[in-house]
Write a structure and sequence with these properties.
The chain is α/β, with parallel strands linked by helices and about 425 residues long. The chain contains 14 helices and 24 strands. The longest helix is centred in the middle third of the chain and has 13 residues.
Length: about 425
């Protein structure tokens, strides 16, 4: 099992290229199942979750060709299987995103109940209720979601809570349904908006993505298309925090600053100078110690839960006391125990963590528990004295493309151990 060895204490400086967004690319690859011709997707990040999705499509009989220029060609016409088995779904919860396209295009799906990061319950009941409202017959049998429908019909769906994958699954299912589907209390995340852009490029009629009310007019077919995935806003935020926690200066290129307003506001509150352009963001900490900032996670456009762990690491060495409240997932503070091994002063009180900043962290062996927790430990190690070993970094490979290479390009002392 690979590990990362990180010698901290070096201010990061330089430019970093941001990859395509994992959380946009996964539903877009699943949506290729809706087409009746070949689709090409560009700006695809080279990540383990992407590889898992490609393997899943391949098992269904879909022809997938990966090109060197971050482009993937998907031909869904040879599909012969309509299931997502447990051995793949257990490693990546986003596998459930094939549910809506399979039912919408082929009238059937058998998808294993999902696994993924151990960050709390993320039930599929909203997916199931939405498909039933659209006329599907849904059963949970032997750990699988079994769905059958001749042709889905449009429906008015009110989601009990905001769910990104639920919104995406139902939006994809509705594209080939008979009539109009309205999804109320829809997720507003940029990745949902990107998926809608892709669906419309294939001939779908999706309106309202990016708001809490999405309207889909069903069509009879979707054709092939080419579409480039948006930049990864969470990767962008992570590298900006890397600059802040080391007192350095980092410019993220080929990104989308408009999707980062909540994160940039908190970085400015932490004392960083932040400037933006059309497709870049620069953070300059000027060697200063950050100021502690309170965080409360919320669905977009609120502060993203996927940046909570990184800001906890930043607050560990900040001047002052900060409270971090996690409102999305109930078990997403597991990184706090590992940060304490580096000398952090963190107290957990239910859904809130109280972080008292210390002048410095000290190296220690730590273990990653989920994707974003991995990032927080890498960030803390960049600021710690001595060499930190981060174990179980397969989580990092799920969501960060070439992380150590990009950090080395900014001046970090980081290497991968076998």
């Amino acid at each position: 099992m690979h590990k990362l060895a990180i010698v901290g204490g070096r201010p990061l400086a330089g430019d970093v290229r941001i990859s395509g967004a994992k959380n946009a690319c996964l539903p877009i690859l699943a949506a290729c199942l809706l087409a009746d011709d070949e689709v090409t997707v560009g700006n695809v990040p080279h990540l383990r979750d992407i590889t898992t999705t490609i393997e899943l499509l391949g098992r269904m009989g879909v022809e997938v060709t990966v090109h060197e220029d971050m482009r993937v060609a998907v031909d869904p016409r040879p599909i012969r299987e309509y299931s997502a088995p447990y051995d793949l779904v257990k490693t990546m919860r986003a596998s459930i995103l094939v549910l809506g396209p399979l039912v919408g295009r082929h009238g059937r799906a058998d998808v294993s109940l999902p696994g993924g990061c151990a960050i709390g319950a993320r039930p599929v009941d909203l997916h199931v209720a939405g498909l039933r409202a659209m006329g599907a017959d849904v059963e949970i049998v032997d750990g699988y979601i079994r769905v059958r429908a001749k042709r889905l019909r449009g429906a008015h769906i009110v989601l009990d809570k905001v769910t990104v994958t639920g919104t995406e699954n139902l939006m994809m299912a509705a594209c080939l349904a008979d009539g109009e589907t309205v999804i109320e209390n829809a997720a507003r995340e940029p990745e949902v908006e990107d998926l809608a852009g892709f669906l419309n490029a294939m001939g779908a009629r999706v309106a309202g993505a990016g708001t809490n009310r999405i309207i889909v007019q069903g069509v009879t077919r979707l054709h092939g298309a080419h579409y480039d995935v948006q930049p990864d806003r969470i990767e962008t935020g992570t590298f900006l925090v890397a600059g802040a926690i080391t007192g350095g200066r980092v410019r993220a290129r080929r990104t989308a600053p408009q999707y980062l307003e909540a994160v940039l506001a908190k970085l400015r509150a932490a004392g960083a100078t932040v400037t933006t352009g059309p497709d870049w963001v620069e953070l300059d900490m000027g060697g200063r110690r950050p100021v502690a900032v309170d965080i409360s996670t919320d669905p977009y456009p609120g502060f993203p839960t996927d940046m909570q762990a990184q800001f906890m690491a930043l607050n560990c060495i900040a001047d002052g006391v900060a409270t971090i409240t996690e409102n999305i997932f109930e078990n997403r503070f597991m990184h706090a125990l590992e940060l304490q091994r580096l000398g952090a002063n963190i107290r957990i009180e239910g859904p809130t963590a109280v972080v008292v900043g210390v002048p410095r962290l000290r190296a220690a062996p730590v273990m990653a528990t989920d994707l974003r927790a991995s990032a927080s430990l890498v960030l803390a190690a960049l600021a710690a004295e001595g060499e930190t070993i981060v174990d179980r970094i397969y989580h990092i490979d799920r969501g960060y493309e070439c992380l150590e290479e990009k950090l080395r390009g900014l001046g970090a002392d980081i290497r991968r151990l076998a």
